[in-house]
Write a structure and sequence with these properties.
Helix content is 60%, strand content 7%. Helix 9 (316-335) runs antiparallel to helix 10 (340-371). It contains 14 helices and 7 strands. Among the domains are: 48-228, 3-Layer(aba) Sandwich (Rossmann fold); 376-445. The chain starts with a helix and ends in an 8-residue tail after the last helix. It has helices spanning 5-21, 60-68, 129-138, 157-166, 184-197, 218-228, 231-257, 263-302, 316-335, 340-371, 376-414, 421-445, 449-501, 512-516; strands spanning 48-54, 85-90, 103-108, 116-120, 144-149, 171-176, 204-206. The chain is an alpha/beta fold. The structure holds guanosine-5'-triphosphate and magnesium ion. Guanosine-5'-triphosphate binds next to helix 2.
Length: 524
């Protein structure tokens, strides 16, 4: 989807804001150059906005006063002097209502300067933070910055840094003021430094505002700006600024992308966890073992669980072991350059719920083990003998009964003697054994309650640990999904940004404009 710069930068800001709040990126770095260019005038025909910028006491206000021919801006020896912005423009130029504070306005009727709005700004290397803020808030409204220096201080630390970092988004002219006490070596050195900063052939004007110096170039400065104030130059400066900002935006997006780590790192995180969990699970299991037997005895004595939560295996030791494992997982993520905050957020929930999750598994399996004693084979055998315990005595008694009736009928026909003593003894024995044998086998094979409880507890702890491992893996996979979503949004923004930076703005190599813009952006 195609966006223009302002839309795109807004979307990047929104994305960065939510990514920062969710902890995916550690900081939002939004250089001034990314701020949208915000021309004071909405209509196409507008004047060129130029502003004096530089350290305190270099003579910015004096230069504007000289242009005006009267003291419209406050200048003096107190440092810093100016604490407000002074605008100086033709009386026919109608400035819109400005959303900015601390402004003075003065008018002139010089037709040659009709297309230029001059601005005097406070110093930029001030001890007064308000001054710096005021200058920064004005920067997006300005087309050309006139960087004023004095021969002694032509590289004021903060203003120079601003030139290096934000230089490419504006046009620049340079003034070495107070040249009445300047040396040519200072001028040449300043020129050399500008060259290094990225200006191949900078336009530097030597001026002196106190006395008439033969080579004062103040008039040239005013003329150059008047001649530059064409719609074409303004458009070119705007387009170039936009291009530079789009490049900076792309760098910013690239920088954000580094916060997400690699796919390999993510895979490593899973395998590191499996390895770490093996040890933790083993230690936890060992820690539980000595408590299982007494617990099983406890159940055997009471024959039933009294209330839920009766099994309190997950003690402080277990929680510490589990917390340590999760801490080392987060540390692993950090070492693998993955964003740790969103992962920690997933794990936080697990830390709190570990005890409940583990205990519910143990309780479930213990209850099941007590309800269904023994394993499947044991239960089958027991069932068989339980049936045999009933059926065998019935069968034996039926057989004895049959023999008694049969003996009686036969003895009646043959008048032989009826059943003897042997029969009585054998049939009693048969009946008794047919009941006693299954009865004792049942008694012997029946697993004890204690054993059942122990088996249930063992199974429960192992299932409980499995469920914790599963929950952590699920947490990592949710982290992975969130990460993938963020990366896909970021990639969409990157693609949109690439389409903005594709076509560079053409500036004629020999024009004054070419001398005003940085050729190699020092900040890049
Ligand atoms: N010798 C000499 N002094 C100058 C020249 N231009 C300005 N001054 C003096 O330098 C001092 C500071 O001038 P300002 O115009 O107030 O300087 P500024 O850059 O506006 O200073 P801030 O408002 O604090 O940022 C004043 O006392 C001026 O008289 C010059 O060309 N030569
Ligand atoms: Mg001033």
């Amino acid at each position: 989807m195609a966006y223009d710069y302002s839309e795109l930068s807004q979307r990047v800001d929104l994305w960065a804001q939510q990514a920062y709040e969710l902890g995916w990126i550690a900081e939002i770095n939004s250089p001034i150059s990314l701020k949208e260019k915000n021309p004071l005038f909405e209509n196409v025909m507008r004047p060129l906005i130029v502003a004096f910028i530089g350290g305190t006491g270099v003579g910015k206000s004096t230069l504007l006063n000289r242009l005006a021919g009267k003291p419209i801006a406050k200048s003096g020896v107190a440092r810093p002097t100016s604490k407000e912005v002074t605008l100086f423009h033709h009386q026919d130029v109608k400035l819109p209502t400005l959303p900015l504070n601390d402004i003075r306005v003065a008018h002139h009727d010089d037709e040659t300067q009709k297309n230029v709005v001059w601005i005097d700004m406070p110093d930029f290397d001030s001890t007064d933070a308000h001054n710096k803020e005021l200058v920064l808030s004005w920067l997006p409204h300005i087309d050309v910055l006139i960087y004023v220096v004095s021969p002694e201080r032509y590289r004021d630390e903060k203003a120079w840094r601003l030139l290096l970092s934000e230089g490419a988004t504006h046009g620049w002219l340079f003034v070495m003021n107070q040249y009445d006490r300047g040396e040519i070596e200072q001028f040449t050195d300043f020129e050399k430094q500008l060259h290094v900063a990225g200006f191949e052939s900078p336009m530097i004007f030597k001026t002196s505002c106190t006395e008439t110096v033969e080579k004062d170039e103040f008039k040239n400065l005013a003329q150059t700006l008047a001649s530059l104030a064409t719609q074409k130059t303004i458009e070119q400066l705007e387009q170039r600024g936009e291009q530079v900002r789009a490049n900076a935006l792309q760098n910013q997006l690239q920088n954000y992308a580094t916060h997400f780590g690699s796919e390999t790192a993510l895979k490593k995180l899973y395998s590191h966890w499996q390895h770490a969990w093996k040890n933790t699970a083993m230690q936890l299991q060992q820690g539980f073992t000595w408590r299982l037997k007494p617990l099983a005895e406890h159940f055997a004595q009471r024959t039933m669980m009294e209330k839920s939560g009766d099994i309190d295996l997950w003690d402080e030791f277990a929680q510490t072991q589990f917390d340590d494992a999760l801490n080392s997982l987060a540390l692993d993520a950090q070492n693998l350059n993955l964003p740790t905050v969103p992962l920690e957020m997933q794990l936080l929930n697990l830390r709190e719920k570990a005890k409940k999750q583990f205990s519910s598994q143990v309780e479930l399996h213990t209850r099941q083990a007590l309800a269904q004693r023994g394993n499947a084979l044991q239960r089958g055998v027991l069932k068989f003998f339980a049936i045999a315990e009933v059926l065998l005595p019935i069968t034996a008694m039926s057989w004895v009964g049959f023999q008694v009736v049969n003996g009686y009928v036969e003895s009646n026909q043959t008048h032989d003697h009826y059943l003897n003593l042997d029969f009585a003894i054998h049939s009693t024995l048969l009946c008794s054994l047919s009941w006693l044998v299954p009865f004792f086998i049942l008694k012997k094979c029946q697993p004890s309650l204690e054993k059942c409880a122990l088996r249930g507890l063992n199974k429960g702890t192992s299932k409980g640990l499995d469920s914790l491992n599963h929950a952590v893996n699920l947490g990592i996979s949710q982290f992975e999904t969130g990460r993938a979503e963020q990366i896909s949004q970021l990639n969409e923004l990157k693609t949109a940004c690439e389409s903005l930076t594709k076509t560079p703005v053409e500036i004629d190599e020999n024009s004054d404009l070419a001398r005003m813009v940085m050729t190699n952006h020092a900040a890049n």
